[in-house]
Design a protein that fits this description.
Length: about 80
């Protein structure tokens, strides 16, 4: 069985997904925008493409191909105070 919910552009999708997955009987919550299903983090993490990216990143790090960033830059990116 499916229930379809139409949302406004600025709806808090993450909160809704979290809330819905806590309800007894809910197996899966999918977000579909413009006919395309949004991938869950679990699906992305288990994909072959993601594994290739992780492998390449590890290889680059081992070969010294990386850039160190300051704590100030990272804080500015993630808005941490």
């Amino acid at each position: 069985m499916e229930i379809r919910i139409s949302l406004e552009k600025y709806a808090d999708v993450a909160l809704l997904k979290k809330f819905l997955t806590q309800i007894k009987g809910v197996k899966k919550v999918s977000v579909i925008q413009d006919g395309e299903t949004e991938s869950s983090w679990e699906e992305i993490e288990n994909s072959e493409y993601f594994q290739k990216i992780i492998d390449q990143s590890e290889k680059d790090f081992e070969e010294g191909k990386y850039i160190e960033h300051s704590k100030e830059l990272l804080k500015s990116i993630f808005n941490k105070k």
